[in-house]
Known about the structure:
4% of the residues lie in helices and 42% in strands. It has 456 residues and is mainly beta. The longest helix is centred in the last third of the chain and has 6 residues, at 341-346.
Amino acid sequence: MAAALRPLTASGARPGLREYQLTLTPAEAKLLGPEHPAVPVWSYNGQVPGPLLRVRQGERLRVVVENRLTEETTVHWHGLRVPNDQDGVPHLTQEPIAPGGRHVYEFVCPDAGTFWYHPHQRSHEQVGRGLYGALVVEESAPIAVDRDVVWILDDWRIDRSGQLAEPFGHRHDIAHAGRLGNAITLNGERLLEFPVRRGERIRLRLLNAANARIFALSFLQHDPIVIAYDGQPVTPHRPEGGRIVLGPAMRADLLLTASGESGQRYPVHDTFYPHAAYELLELVYADVPLRDVPLPASFELPPNPLQEPDLQAAERHQIRFQGGMHGELRQAIMDGKPVDIRQMLHAGKAWAVNGVVATGHVHEPILTLRRNRSYLLQLVNDTAWHHPIHLHGHSFRVLSRNGVPTAHREWRDTVLMAPREEVEIALVADNPGDWMFHCHILDHQLGGMMAVIRVV
C-alpha cells in the first residue's frame, strides 16, 4: 500500500496564523521496502518526506527551523510568492542556518495550491539525502472530493551495500542528465498499491522531488483531469498523450475518478524513458463500491491573485541555457574570467546562462526588471538535455513552445524545456528583490546553470 504523508499539527497560535516546528536530523528510512535494512538519510522531524504542512490561503505561516545536522542549511519555499528575505537562498536572501542554529520563516500565503519546501544550500546533496516536504495551501472553498492525497515521487541511487551511493555531485552527473537513481519511492516508501473504491473521486497532488528524474505517469483505463500546474489553476483538461509529465520540482493536481471495476487492479506506469518504462504501482479496487452515482462535476479551481502580463507593452529579453556534454559551448565567463569547457569541467562546472557560469548564489543579475512591469522572456535551450527551469518569487504564463502557442497558457513556476527547445514565458515582475533562476536538475544547478534576476 502506498504510504500516506503524515501531516504536522500546527501549534496553538492566534487566529490567521499557523505555526510549525521543523527539526533537521539524520534518520533512517525503509526506502527499499520493509524486508530490507533501513537506509541512512537526512530528515525533517525524523521522517522522509518531511511532514505535510497545511495552511489556508491568506493565512500567515510561521515555521521555526532547527538545524541538528553537521553542516549549514536553509529552507526554500518552492513556488510560494514570499517576500525576498523569506526565500531561503544562502547568502543571497539570508545567512545559512549553522549547525545547532535556528531560523524563523514567516510570511502570508497568497496563493492556494500544491507547493513544497527543501534546502537551497548544497541542494544537490541535501535534497538527495531526503530533505524535502509538501506544503498545501487550501482554497477557502475547496472543490468536492472524497479524498485529497499528496504523492511525492522520488528516486534514490542505492549502492550494493544498501546505502546512498557516494559521491554526490559527480562530474558525470553534472555534465549529463543529473543524478538518476535506481530505486523509486512514493512518499518515501517502495511502491506497491493504492486502494480505491469504485465511484470515489480523488484530488491527487503529484510532486516530483527527485534530483534529476523526469516522470511521465499514465493511468490505465482511467481518465484523470488536470486542474492545476505548480499550484496554479488551469482550465481542466485531459493530459496531452494521456501522460502527466513532471520534471524535477514540478507539480500537477489531478481529479481522478475511480471508474474501474470493483475487485480489479489497474497499473500506473511511468514511461518517460522509453527503454526503462516500469509499473509505478497499482490502483487496487475494494470489493464494495463507494457509490453508484458520481459526485457532481466540479472541476474548476478559483484563480489565484496573479497579475496578468500586458503582452502588448511587455519588454522582451532572451535567456540562453548552454553547455553540457554534446553541447556547443566552447567558452564562458566563470568568476569574471573567460574559461574554456575543459577548464569548466576541471572545476566541476559544465553549464552557463547567457555565457556566465554560476559558482555560487550571489552574482551579478542577468536581468534587472522594473517592478510591476510586464516582461516576455524567450528561453532557449542550446543543449542536448532536458532542463526544468525554475524562477523564484514569481509565477509566469507559458505562452509558446518553438513558436507554437500553448493550449492552456498555463501559469507555472518551473517549466520543462526539451533539448534544443525554445519556450516563451510572460510575467509581471511584482515581487522586488534578487531571485534565483535556475535548472532544477540539481547537478545542473551545481554545475553552473543558475542566475539571478533582479526586480527593483
